[in-house]
Each structure stands twice: as C-alpha cells, then as structure tokens.
Amino acid sequence: MDPAPHRYGFVFRAVVLILSLAAHGILSKYIYAHPPVGVPSEQSETGGMIMYYGGDMVEIVLIFLFC
Fold first, then answer.
1. pLDDT tens by residue, 12-35
2. Mean pLDDT, residues 34-51 taken together
C-alpha cells in the first residue's frame, strides 16, 4: 500500500513552499516594526531580526533538502 496515495503535484508543493517563505518574511518584518502589546521594542526588534535571518538559514536548508 502506498502511504500517501493522493499526493499533491510538484508545482502545488513548490507554490506552497514559496508562499510559506513569503509569509515568514512578512511576519518577521511586521514583528520588527510593530511590537506586540507588552513587549518592549528592543526585544521585538531583536526577535524580528532573529526570526528573519535565522529563518533564512532554515529556509535554505529546506529548499536544499526538498529540491
């Protein structure tokens, strides 16, 4: 038996990966520019930078593994 008999096509999976990379970048920039309530701006900026640049490293590894 095939564990995933109805897998989505490569194009669909590539589009979902690209959209998730874009959403990650937008979220990290939003957190950097607009800190959540109760979070000091310095912590928000640091967290946004870590999320943005650290996420780039993770994304590069994911693209390498998937492609």
1. 888 988 999 999 999 999 999 999
2. 91
Size of the chain in residues: 67
DSSP the chain: --SSTTPPPHHHHHHHHHHHHHHHHHHHHHHHHSPPTTS-HHHHHHHHHIIIIIHHHHHHHHHHHH-
AA letter at 39: V
Distance CA 29, CA 8 (A): 30
Domain ranges of the chain: 10-66
Residue in this structure with the two tokens 């390498």, named with its chain if needed: 64
> What pTM was estimated for this model as a whole?
0.75
Residue 31's nearest CA partner among 19, 18, 43, 21 is: 43
Structure tokens at 19: 């959209």
With H, G, I as helix, E, B as strand and everything else as coil, classify residue 3.
Answer: coil
